Amino acid sequence: MSEKFHILLHMTVTVTLVVGADGSTSLDGNSAGVSSKADRSTFLARRRLADCIVIGGKTARSEPYHRSPVPVVVISRSLINPLADNRLAHCWNLSPEDALTRAQKIFGENVHIEGGTAIVSALIAANRVDALELSVTEVTGGQNKIDIEKLLAYFNFAQEYSVDGTRFISARIN
Description:
- Helices cover 25% and strands 28% of the residues.
- The protein is an alpha/beta fold.
- It has one domain (3-172): Dihydrofolate Reductase, subunit A (3-Layer(aba) Sandwich).
- The protein has an eight-stranded mixed sheet, with helices on both faces. The chain has a two-stranded antiparallel ribbon with strand order 2-8.
- The chain is globular and about 40 Å long.
- The two termini are 22 Å apart.
């Protein structure tokens, strides 16, 4: 297994996020606009290590989750599952904290949070996140910006490397 995934194997709840250089989390409605080839390759390899993925309803409606290598939990107030065509999708009307607890009981401890900033912020505030896998691409001018430094401030250990203009930051709480 490559060295860049070594930290991830020891984590249980990992936030996986791609942002542009200006903190944009989306461009033209989804994360593909701020992603890069290097990010997509790393992201897809990393998510295969998860027991399940947790996302929000907006993410489910705007991102390609109709096929997934592991179960996907959609946190949504709507009772209509936006991923009804994905046999591994589950739609739960729960808080992020309760959904995470339930997902770990049902699917396993290694959960990837790929939801939006509201879910990520709620889980960080509840001290439920062990690691952050952040990809920072060269893209600017997108929407739904986050403060990258403020996000990293929640973690006390980070490693960083770059591939083809994309910065990869693996941060964790010791």
